[in-house]
Specification:
By secondary structure, this protein is an alpha/beta fold. The protein has two domains: 179 residues, Glycogen Phosphorylase B (Rossmann fold, 3-Layer(aba) Sandwich), CATH 3.40.50; 174 residues, Glycogen Phosphorylase B (Rossmann fold). It has 16 helices and 13 strands. A seven-stranded parallel sheet has the order 3-2-1-4-5-6-7, sandwiched between helices. Helix 5 links the parallel strand 5 and strand 6. Helix 3 crosses helix 4 and helix 7 crosses helix 11. The protein is elongated and about 65 Å long. 46% of the residues are buried.
Length: 363
């Protein structure tokens, strides 16, 4: 098979970067000779994460529109003009067979230039509420890979392919003994365990909730694995006990998932994709500080299938204790959430996206 030349653009957040890297890894797994170039935004996290994953990346001088009048906003037209010029040069020199965008500022000019040059193009939308970049690009690209149902409200229906979101390969094949997983965190092997996730940096409101609910968890006879985030470890590290294990960051997520009976988590698209595969009862507490409140919409898409519990931050003080207690005291509800969320899993998402890419190239 002739090796492909592929440009992938996605960045700004891990939610755009990690799917892009997963797609690149799958392309390389199918053909080691495939030539892959990433394009990102200068000074954003992709400029570090992509080289760490073993891929070359070129940076564009581009940023998003700020909500208030700033120097950056005044510079935006100049950044766009330069980014479009740079994308034309990159595409002319690299000569890609296909261009893939997974969201973020840099993907807009790159995918737009590719589509104007009739180079096959694909975008991948992780969330249940489409980002502005992908909505703008959707009319120009050939295919749109989506993770949630009902995305025809944002995109042309004939271009949609329901693939799901790429997840880490280790999560897709979770096969770890629960008792041993608990012991690895210094917990009792036969005791019900709660896993709390707020992202690598941490979630202030979730941490406050957990800290104020430790007596409740004790009353429910739960032991806790609490990822508080790097910003908050100094605040909460003294809360570690025999029953409560506080960590800044959990690098071995497969073991943490295996140890858990129930999970409290934010509702980022990639977190949800992993939790569908894990198949444990989940309580989603979406971040309200994201564009278009998309985490709430992501969580609601799962709740609509009676597959999880959603509690908004503004409701935590009044409803968390009663609703969480009800979940923990109902084996029926736990079983229903577990069975229903597993039905929403897309373990072959990365392969399905690459199938779309390869079909487009060979069309």
């Amino acid at each position: 098979m002739k090796p492909y030349k592929v440009i992938i653009s996605g960045g700004g957040t891990g939610g755009h970067i990690y799917p892009a890297i997963a797609i690149a890894d799958e392309l390389k797994a199918r053909n080691k000779q495939t030539d892959i170039l990433f394009v990102g935004a200068e000074n954003r996290m992709e400029m570090q994460k992509v080289p760490e994953a073993g891929y070359p990346i070129k940076g564009l001088w581009i940023a998003g529109l700020q909500r208030k009048l700033t120097v950056d906003n005044l510079m935006l037209p100049f950044k766009l003009i330069k980014s479009f010029r740079d994308c034309k040069k990159i595409i002319k020199e690299f000569k890609p067979d296909v261009v893939i965008g997974t969201g973020g500022y840099a993907s807009a000019p790159l995918v737009r230039v590719a589509s104007k040059r009739n180079i096959p193009s694909v975008i991948q939308e992780q969330n249940s509420y489409a980002g502005i970049t992908n909505k703008l690009l959707s009319k120009k690209v050939d295919k749109i890979c989506v993770a949630f149902e009902g995305m025809e409200q944002f995109f042309p229906k004939e271009k949609l392919v329901h693939t799901g979101n790429p997840v880490r390969k280790h999560i897709a094949s979770l096969d770890i003994n629960q008792a041993k997983a608990r012991e690895s965190f210094g917990l009792k092997p036969n005791k019900k365990t709660l896993l709390v996730l707020g992202g690598s940096l941490g979630a202030k409101r979730i941490n406050e909730l957990v800290n104020s609910s430790l007596d409740l968890f004790d009353a429910l006879d739960l032991q806790v694995i609490w990822q508080c985030g790097q910003f908050y470890i100094d605040t909460y590290k003294d809360s570690s006990t025999e029953k409560v294990k506080v960590q800044a960051y959990i690098s071995d997520m497969e073991t943490a998932y295996a140890a858990a009976d129930v999970i409290i988590s934010r509702a980022g698209a990639l977190s949800i994709a992993e939790l569908c595969l894990v198949g444990k009862p989940c309580v989603f507490i979406p971040s309200p500080n994201v564009a278009e409140d998309h985490q709430t919409k992501n969580a609601q898409a799962i709740v609509n299938h009676e597959a999880a519990m959603l509690i908004k931050e503004m409701e935590l003080d009044t409803t968390f204790a009663s609703r969480f207690t009800k979940l923990m005291q109902s084996d029926k509800m736990q079983k229903q959430f577990s069975e229903n969320i597993k039905k929403l899993a897309k373990p072959n998402a990365t392969a399905d996206i690459v199938n779309v890419v390869e079909n487009l190239i060979s069309a």
